Amino acid sequence: MPVVCAANPKGGAGKSTTILAIASTLAQQGGSVTIIDADPNKPITDWRTGKSTLPIQVISDATEGSIRDLINTAASEAQFVFVDLEGTASRLASRAIIRADLTLIPLGGSALDAKQAARAVGLVRESEEDIGRKLNFTLAFNRTSPPPFTRRIEREIADQMRSNDLPVLSTHLYRREAYNAMFMERLSLFELDPRQVNGLEAAVDNAVQLTGEVLELLRGAAAERAA
């Protein structure tokens, strides 16, 4: 079953938010989902201690030595496996990237985020050299402004990434109160109270659209392997 990891050596790049938004959308749609929380801060492990009833299994004891076996076991049991990686370039991160069917590189719309995302791309390239084959990855913008309020720097950074032949998701995970509320309330987007969270419906639609684009990439990768 497909394995998706989120990698960026910059802490606070939106890895956990991106992973949880997609994973919870798939679980809400009936998918079997496991998240391996390899972030030392354990944000998704903490989220799982809440009252969410979504059937998402969270594994929080990943180490450099165990990450490969954890991914393989989870992939044999769940329809979708997500790995939330630590905010450093490490051997654990490299092992997860090599095993993943898709690596998401979350970044915000700032020059610093773009620089750190470039380091994550470099980590993927190094992993490709180690195993002698191409790996699927894409940049995934988050915490950007939704249209028509998109900032010029956000557009310029996205255009620059594409001009450098780097894959970029068309769907951004926009700056929404609901994404912070997921972690504050320890609930999924689908369980939050729309009376208490501004723009919740828009955030749900945004997460569903992002999930659909990620699924299309995974289907394309599967088709390439089968060809």
Question: Short description, anyone?
Answer:
The protein has 227 residues and is an alpha/beta fold. Helix content is 48%, strand content 15%.
Written overview of the protein:
By secondary structure, the protein is an alpha/beta fold. It has helices spanning 15-28, 43-48, 67-77, 91-99, 111-131, 152-163, 177-185, 200-226, and strands at 3-6, 33-37, 56-59, 80-84, 102-107, 137-144, 173-174. A seven-stranded parallel β-sheet has the order 3-2-4-1-5-6-7, sandwiched between helices. It is globular and about 50 Å long. The relative contact order is 0.18. The mean pLDDT is 90. Pfam families: VirC1 (PF07015). InterPro entries: DNA_Partitioning_ATPase, P-loop_NTPase, VirC1.
Short descriptors:
8 helices, 48% helix, VirC1, Chromosome partitioning protein, seven-stranded parallel beta sheet, P-loop_NTPase, DNA_Partitioning_ATPase
How would you summarize the topology of this molecule?
Blueprint: E1 3-6, H1 15-28, E2 33-37, H2 43-48, E3 56-59, H3 67-77, E4 80-84, H4 91-99, E5 102-107, H5 111-131, E6 137-144, H6 152-163, E7 173-174, H7 177-185, H8 200-226
Parallel strand pairs: 1-4, 1-5, 2-3, 2-4, 5-6, 6-7
Helix pairs in contact: 1-8, 3-4, 4-5
Protein name: Chromosome partitioning protein
Organism: Shinella granuli
